[in-house]
Write a structure and sequence with these properties.
Elements lengths: L3 E2 L7 H14 L26 H10 L49 E5 L6 E10 L4 E6 L5 E5 L3 E2 L5 H29 L1 E2 L8 H10 L2 H23 L4 H4 L8 H6 L5 H5 L1 H11 L5 H18 L14 H38 L11 H4 L3 H32 L4 H4 L26 E7 L4 E3 L5 H16 L7 H4 L19 H26 L5 H4 L3 H11 L3 H21 L3 E4 L2 E4 L1 H44 L6 H11 L2 H24 L6 H60 L8 H31 L8 H32 L7 H18 L7 H17 L2 H8 L6 H11 L11 H6 L6 H25 L1
Parallel strand pairs: 8-11
Antiparallel strand pairs: 1-7, 2-3, 2-6, 3-4, 4-5, 8-9, 10-11
Helix pairs in contact: 3-5, 10-11, 10-13, 11-15, 13-17, 15-17, 19-21, 20-21, 21-23, 21-24, 22-24, 23-24, 24-25, 25-26, 26-27, 27-28, 29-32, 30-32
């Protein structure tokens, strides 16, 4: 399987520790070993084995030592993928090659020797000046210039020591350095190989160790176990002995480095060749590839951590809001996957691979035949697999988290057996479907015209949640690969996409089925719970005004209204204890508070309306009682306009105490009804409260008012008595005036002024009647004042004498008005019976007046004149009767007009005055003949109709 490589740009920790340990060793006191092959006996310290530096360089070259080996590397980070030395040679210098003890012998002082300095090009003569025993550093002066230098021992050759032993000393240090550097490279290679758990302990071993030790011990063991097996795998890849590879130097100290055997001859002396083979057979042949894969791995790890769905929320949210947030989140993530991820990965690969240039990783390759055999092809394939692996992990983890978040572990819902009629059997407060984790979705229970309903249709949950998951899975199939954007010199197909998780993947199918099963079963208790609120529908839609009108139409008593109010209060309290504020059913957090408050508010409104209705009822009753009291007061306090009025008020006041007693009894019964309102702690309005106490205080006010009225009446009696004397004098004067005027008026008898005379007569007659009525009133007042009555005999006599005169002119005027209507109106509208009756009544009335005016010749002549006027109108009745014959038709009217000589159209709609003007009274026989002819023709026609019928 491909290895996952993780590289860093830091200097290897092994080299740092090596430097640190080497420094610590050099600070320790110098120890001397027993004599061995390294030891050289010097009998005379004045003997010189070499004369110049050329001889020493020749011996060193013979041993394979170049001056460049003395080069000390820089402190900057070293590339462990190269063959360059990165450890200083002085760390591996073996002090056991020293030929003498500098602390014991002073032969080295001011001795001329050979030394090599930076840049390590050649050896040159120096003079030894000083020595540091603890670090084995020597201070020398160059010749011929006196420049002081501080150099390690292996860079200084003393003339009295064996040059071949000195060369062996440098060769030993060189081999020790190569061994250490090869070990560091080997550890570096093993350290930066990510096994992905392939080399972890087996499950049985893991369980055994966990059972016998702690978790911390297992973690340490696991790291050691993986490191060991990775080392075996790398050694096998490098064709080294696996058992030897794992024994590479730990580089704990310099002494151990000196005495540790090399893993194998080939590995110790030919690590460069083995590394070259490793580079040829693996993609990790250049550090830029390491970094490129590392960055790709970082981008893939970022993708694995992307939030694809909303899987956490502090509070439940509506489905619409959840869908909206999910769409926004998934759109953002998909946009990142389709654009930013590809762009960033391509950018990292392009930036790092372009540094390599031509060769196996040339991103500018333009031929498919070359690209197919390049390591770049394998690298891109490796990146493709990594990206597909990251995408699959993202989708599987995200969908698992999505389903885990939505299916919030309610075993009661999963145990429901799907049935057509599922009912909620428990109370409305406790939910048997309480999940282990918080609810996800927010629903509000509302009341509909037919049934209760939720703010979101429950049946939309399964489909919406399924589509949210399936849509994102579908969109993840359209994420392009990095090949077209990385290698732009090659032509790729447009439909190259990363392989994603399919909709029919077994894991996705199981998750989808679990999600749908959970939410489809959750709909049963959800709908059953809402159905329980159907019982409150009638209350919810109750119209308060109509409810009160029904109560009013039933004309219930106050005790019955009291029972209704108590019922509403009990029902409200029942709602408070049986209807919850909210309830959780599986994944749904249902807000019942608005509906609960609406129902409670409706009960409160009905209670308040009943209390208000009872208050209004009591207000009307109390107002009626107060109205009765006010009526009594108004009746007593009426301002008297006459003495009769005073006596009427006094008679009424005798019954007032009894009336007040009855009203007090009524008010006591009303007080019992007020106690009903007090029992419900209902505060009366200020006006009603004032009205109630006014009604209770009215009896005392009425009785107090009676005393005041009686005092007032005493003063009014005196005033009316004085007024009576004045009225009596004015009445006597009025009688005298009317008597004088009538005496003068009765001497008039002009028949041409009938209308004016009749009007004046009627006025005088009305005045006489008023004077008589006034006289009767004054006589009654005289009795109330206990005074003598006024004589009305003169007034009665005047009325008797004036009566005949009044009838004469009245009858005459009325007849003339009737005659005008008979003549002036259309003939068809004239009632002949009314005319006949009016003539007879007028004639009789005038005949009756003849005896009354025998002593007055002028007035007698007036009566006779009007009798002649009446008699002269009687012949017109015959003409009118003939002309109103119903059988006269247009032809007959035309014949009459022609025979009488009338130039115009005649009909029954013409006024009788027209007929009088044309002299129809003189052609009575002609009219009668035409009428008889019309009647005969009518009879003949009716006979024919009868025959035909």
């Amino acid at each position: 399987m491909p290895w996952r490589i993780s590289l860093t740009d830091e200097k290897p920790k092994a080299s740092k520790e090596l430097l640190k340990q080497s420094s610590n060793k050099n600070t320790n006191p110098v120890s001397r070993a027993s004599k061995c092959k390294k030891y050289q006996f010097i009998s005379d310290y004045t003997t010189q084995h070499l004369a110049d530096a050329n001889g020493l360089e020749a011996i060193l070259k013979e041993k394979g030592i170049n001056n460049s080996l003395f080069y000390t590397p820089n402190v900057a980070p070293t590339d462990l993928n190269s063959n360059d030395h990165f450890l200083p040679l002085e760390m591996f210098d073996d002090w056991e090659y020293d030929t003498f003890n500098p602390e014991a012998l002073d032969v080295w002082k001011n001795v001329e020797a050979l030394a090599i300095f930076t840049p390590f090009t050649y050896w040159q003569p120096v003079q030894v000046v000083n020595h540091e025993p603890r670090s084995n550093y020597w201070e020398v002066n160059r010749k011929p210039i006196s420049t002081s230098h501080r150099i390690p021992r292996h860079q200084l050759y003393l003339p009295f020591e064996d040059p071949y032993k000195f060369a062996e000393r440098i060769v030993a240090a060189q081999k020790a350095r190569e061994t250490a550097e090869n070990a560091i490279r080997f550890r570096f290679l093993c350290k930066h190989l990510s096994s992905g758990g392939c080399f972890a302990p087996g499950r049985a071993l893991e369980q055994s160790i966990r059972r016998r030790t702690s978790e911390e011990v297992y973690v340490i063991f696991k790291n050691l176990y993986e490191s060991y097996h990775i080392a075996l795998a790398v050694g096998k890849h490098l064709k080294l002995d696996s058992t030897v590879v794992t024994k590479q130097p730990a580089i704990s100290c310099i002494d151990s480095m000196k005495h540790t055997a090399t893993p194998s001859v080939g590995a110790a002396s030919n690590i460069a060749y083995l590394l070259d083979c490793f580079r040829r057979s693996t993609l990790l042949c250049d550090r830029n590839v390491f970094h490129a894969l590392r960055f790709v791995n970082q981008e893939c790890e970022m993708v694995r951590k992307l939030p694809l769905f909303i899987v956490a929320n502090e509070m439940p949210m509506p489905l619409e809001e959840y869908e909206k947030q999910n769409v926004a989140q998934t759109s953002k993530t998909i946009k990142y996957l389709q654009n930013s991820w590809i762009e960033r990965s391509t950018m990292h690969l392009h930036r790092l691979l372009s540094r390599i240039g031509d060769g196996n990783f040339d991103i500018g390759v333009s031929k498919w035949s070359i690209y197919s055999v390049m390591k770049l092809n394998r690298l891109v394939e490796q990146v493709l697999y990594r990206m597909q692996d990251a995408l699959r992990d993202l989708l599987l983890d995200s969908t698992a988290a999505y389903v885990h978040y939505l299916v919030n572990d309610c075993s009661a819902i999963l145990s429901i057996e799907e049935q057509e009629h599922y009912s909620w059997d428990g109370n409305l407060l406790d939910s048997p479907f309480e999940p282990k984790r918080p609810a996800v979705f927010y629903l509000m229970l509302e009341m509909g015209q037919e049934t209760p309903y939720y703010s979101t249709e429950p049946s939309s949950f399964p489909d919406t949640l399924r589509y949210l998951m399936d849509d994102i899975l579908t969109e993840c199939h359209f994420i392009h690969t990095i090949e077209p954007s990385l290698m732009q010199s090659l032509t790729f197909a447009e439909n190259l996409f990363l392989s994603s998780v399919g909709l029919l993947d077994p894991i996705i199918v199981r998750q989808r089925e679990a999600l749908l099963e959970y939410y489809q079963k959750s709909l049963l208790p959800l709908r059953a719970y809402a159905a329980r609120y159907t019982a409150y529908r009638e209350l919810f839609f109750t119209n308060v005004k109509e409810f009160i009108e029904q109560i009013k139409s039933a004309d219930k008593s106050s005790s019955e209204i009291k029972e209704d109010i108590a019922l509403q209060i009990r029902m409200r309290e029942n709602l408070e204890h049986t209807v919850p504020l909210c309830i959780v059913i599986g994944p749904y957090w249902i807000n019942v508070q608005p509906l609960r408050e609406a129902l409670i508010r409706k009960r409160l409104e009905l209670t308040a309306a009943l209390l208000k209705m009872l208050t209004e009822k009591l207000r009307l009753k109390t107002a009626d009682v107060i109205g009765c009291y006010n009526t009594i007061n108004e009746r007593m306090c009426e301002k008297p306009v006459s003495i009769e009025h005073i006596y009427d008020i006094r008679a009424y006041m005798e019954d007032v105490p009894e009336l007040v007693g009855r009203l007090e009894d009524r008010m006591r019964s009303i007080l019992y009804e007020y106690e009903i309102l007090e029992g419900f702690l209902h505060n009366l309005p200020d006006a009603d409260f004032e009205q109630k106490w006014n009604a209770l205080a009215y009896p005392r006010l009425v009785l107090k008012q009676m005393a005041s009225v009686k005092e007032f009446h005493e003063s009014e009696v005196d005033r009316f008595r004085k007024q009576q004397f004045a009225d009596e004098a004015a009445f006597t004067a009025s009688i005298e005036d009317i008597n004088a005027y009538i005496s003068k008026f009765t001497t008039l008898y002009d028949v041409s002024k009938v209308s004016e005379m009749s009007v004046e007569v009627r006025r005088l007659w009305k005045t006489l009647q008023e004077l008589l009525e006034q006289g009767h009133i004054m006589n009654r007042r005289q009795e109330l004042f206990e005074m003598a009555p006024i004589s009305l005999n003169n007034l009665f006599e005047l009325r008797t004498n004036f009566k005949a005169y009044q009838e004469l002119w009245t009858v005459a005027a009325d007849y003339l008005k009737l005659e005008e209507t008979w003549i002036g109106n259309p003939l068809a509208s004239v009632d002949l019976e009314g005319v006949r009756r009016g003539l007879q009544q007028t004639h009789d009335s005038l005949k009756d007046l003849l005896p009354l005016f025998r002593d007055q010749p002028q007035l007698l002549a007036v009566v006779e004149h009007f009798i002649l006027v009446v008699e002269s109108f009687r012949p017109n009745l015959d003409i009118m009767e003939l002309l109103k014959c119903p059988y006269l038709e247009a032809i007959h009217w035309g014949q009459l007009a022609k025979e009488i000589g009338v130039k115009g159209k005649l009909s029954v709609d013409v006024g009788f005055d027209v007929f009088l003007e044309h002299g129809f009274r003189d052609h009575l026989e002609t009219v009668r003949r035409v009428v008889v002819k019309a009647e005969q023709q009518r009879l003949e026609q009716e006979a024919r109709w009868a025959e035909e019928e």
